[in-house]
Specification:
single chain, about 230 residues, alpha/beta, Arc Repressor Mutant, subunit A, 9 helices, 11 strands, transcription regulation
Length: about 230
């Protein structure tokens, strides 16, 4: 069940939307006054907020700003105010969508599901990223483990960054040479790539002799695992 908070002082519209969305497993709790909605947000968990702009006691843009500042919840503005400035301001404040009245309830249902799909995927990506021990910052040319900077030579950085980008896949020695500005095939002949791999393991592995992250796949190349 998708749970939605709606701030709408037009009772007929609120009832219409509530009944329509119910058939799509969307439960709407409407608040005629913004202060009641803000109080409820402090106590209850909602998946999304539908917000009118013309409200008693508090302008919808001020409500939008407060919700964005305090809560991690997507917002759809549902308003009859046609001034482009209101739309731009709402989106700049952090609203996810702006639906001008009047509109077909079917459009609202589609937008709700589209926003929640993107929002939930983003949250999953963030959670997954937080789980990772190693992170690559391409702009800074830095690699960290558990937030700690790993001191690498230029060649070590090139090799490890490539393996991180291809995490979970086997990267052949030829691919490493082809994607490196510092290494050439003389390294392959001299065995220096193996030396670089060993130096990286010394810096990132708990036990370099039994690596769990930078693995050698015999006859193929290397694989990086978090």
């Amino acid at each position: 069940m998708i749970k939605i908070a709606m701030v709408e002082d037009d009772i007929q519209l609120a009832d219409l939307l509530t009944q329509y969305l119910k058939q799509f497993n969307i439960e709407v709790t409407n608040f005629e006054e913004p202060f009641l909605a803000l109080s409820s947000l402090r106590i209850h968990k909602y998946d999304l907020l539908i917000l009118d702009l013309t409200l008693p006691g508090m302008d919808g843009l001020d409500v939008c700003k407060e919700v964005v500042d305090k809560y991690n919840i997507p917002i759809i503005i549902s308003s009859a105010r046609s001034d482009i400035t209101d739309k731009v301001t709402a989106l700049q404040l952090g609203a996810d969508d702006y639906l001008p009245k009047p509109y077909d309830p079917r459009e609202l249902e589609v937008r709700i599901k589209t926003i929640l799909r993107r929002y939930n995927q983003h949250n999953e990506d963030v959670k997954e990223d937080k789980k990772k021990l190693f992170k690559l910052d391409i702009e800074k040319r830095e690699i960290t483990k558990k937030g700690q900077y790993i001191k690498l030579t230029a060649a070590e950085y090139e090799v490890l960054s490539l393996l991180l980008k291809r995490e979970g896949f086997v990267v052949t020695r030829e691919e490493i040479f082809d994607n490196s500005d510092l290494l050439n095939h003389d390294y392959e002949n001299s065995g220096s790539l193996a030396v670089i791999i060993n130096r990286i393991r010394q810096k990132i592995e708990d036990n370099p002799k039994e690596p769990t992250h930078l693995q050698t796949i015999r006859g193929m190349g290397y694989k990086f695992l978090q």
